[in-house]
Amino acid sequence: MAGLASDGANPDVSLLYDINGLAKAAPPWFDRVMEFVGEYGIMLGMVLVVLWCWWSVRRRGTLADSVSAVAGLVWAPLAAGVALLVNIPIRGFVERPRPFNDHEGLEVLVAGKTDFSFVSDHATMAMALGVGLFVAHRKFGLAAIGLALTEGFARVYMGVHYPTDVIGGFALGTAVALLLAPVALALLTPVVSAVARSGRAAAFVRSRKAAGPQQPETVDIPEPRLGGPANGTTQNDLAA
Length: 240
Prior knowledge:
- It is a single chain.
- This protein is mainly α.
- The chain has a single domain (27-209), classed as Vanadium-containing Chloroperoxidase, domain 1.
- Helix content is 64%, strand content 0%.
- It has helices at residues 11-25, 28-57, 63-94, 99-102, 121-136, 138-157, 163-179, 181-196, 208-211.
- It starts with 10 loop residues before the first helix and ends in a 29-residue tail after the last helix.
């Protein structure tokens, strides 16, 4: 399986050279930016999108909406973790070398990559987060998926992955996030609902401001009596 893309006429290799060739033509400072973005920046951006979504869903909609969305948000990073675990045996089975090991002339922006190439961990994790977030909130999910696509492009630009490594990562992350979502949400939603009914931890699910001010306790007011007490009458005494 190691020769998955060893032929220079392979479209996978051709696209690799086309995208990585942009790094050769770019100024050095831009390559440094892409190195940081592709290795760390986009994943940090994904975390910020998740936090922004969490902050938003706590303050808007009904309590049921908040519970459902927060359960989905909890599932998103769990889905990324599960997808990375699933990728371990896949990489060991395919044993595809990094592209710079088999092809000359690549502009490699990150040195020291000695593990296998298929499938891309970064692409897998980013897409699992994006699709998991889409399950919780479509608007923020689309933004996260856009970041995941940018992550995939960056990995090829950096010369550390073939395009099919990235596509495989996207497919794996999407499959894990979607196929396991029904089971995960069925387990997570009751837990999040219980947290929402708890004390201080309820703020994790629902903002106190969104919940509104505490309603005063209701007091039962007795109906007016027709007669007063034995020692006199009251203002409710109709006989007065």
